[in-house]
Amino acid sequence: MQPWIGLNLLFDSTTLRSSSGTIYKPGVGATLWRIMGELIASFPEIGVYLTNEWQENRTWRAIVEEHGEPWSFDLGIVPREVADHFTKVPQVLRER
Questions:
Q1: Where are the beta strands (DSSP E) in 1-96?
Q2: CA-based torsion, 57, 79, 11, 52: positive or negative
Q3: pLDDT, greater one: 33 or 67
Q4: Which residues pair with 24 in a beta bridge?
Q5: Quick check: 86 and 78 in contact, CB under 8 A?
Q6: Please, are residues 2 and 64 in contact by the beta-carbon 8 Å criterion?
Q7: How far apart are alpha carbons 80 and 55 in whole angstroms?
């Protein structure tokens, strides 16, 4: 097994979203992209994935262990080296 690092940043979603709860507050998207950009620049091997819940690195495990569903995130930066893991889009995602 390869050595790895998992970095989990947890934010209270109520501080990120508007009062309706479905739309992010102004500036949140740009801030999240900036954080993700810094992370992918520092750790480019496997990608950076944003989720709305704790999931114990499911995407990373699916890629490295070649078992499980890699589409376990809401927003991601996927390096070309692992893009093949995402060529088959699950039906449930295609129906959204």
A1: 48-50, 75-77
A2: negative
A3: 33
A4: 17
A5: yes
A6: yes
A7: 23
